[in-house]
Structure of 2OG-Fe(II) oxygenase:
Amino acid sequence: MSDTAPARDDFIQVTPGVLDAATCATIVARIRASQALRPGEVGGGVYPELKHSRDLSLAGNRDWADVEQALNVAVYGGLLTYLRRWPQALIAPLMLQQPGAGGALRRLEADDVAAMDDRRLGELARTCLRPGAINLQWYRAGEGGYPYWHCELYPRDPQCETLHRHLLWTVYLNDGFDAGETEFLFQRRKVAPRTGDLLLAPTAFTHTHRGNRPQGGDKFIATSWILFQRAERMFGR
């Protein structure tokens, strides 16, 4: 199945043009010029047979703080759209409550989330969720890619940060090459890169995916996760 007309709820959302082409081109030029790129890693380390890329983490990198902010703002808008479409992403795991008639608490329902304006929904999202560290990735034509079928949950981290990942996201920073799709195994869906588009999807094994090798041109993306807030912040100690 292509990325243009999904026939059912597959929980994969593509939002066109969250970043304009000029901003994307500037980020790509900065990646090409950067001296801080490192071989791309998977959870266990550097394995180019699984993932072959040159990466740059933006976490704590003051030189890239403007790019980090621009990406987080772009993703935030797409996240609100995602939560309106699938409000269960918030209410199913968290059993959220709000004051009802007479001040008594009642459980939030899907229609409550869908009816919220951006301010209220944004407050709820920020209470429950947080942005992850952003990674910029450069896949060279004909050799780069992430051909290993994988998901984003990974139990090796002793702090369990990787198990807090709820949604994955990718912003495609360029196009003009062949292949290079994000391919989802069970959904039988390939998302073709388009400059400035945002991909959001769940992180669990149900959305096992891979990054196909670009042909005829290099591929540049920004990628990260939306994580749950840690329990001590949401629920106290």
In short: Residues 90 and 125 are 8 Å apart (CA to CA). The mean pLDDT is 93. The first strand starts at residue 13 and ends at 15. Helices lie at 21-33, 65-85, 88-94, 110-115, 118-128, 231-235.
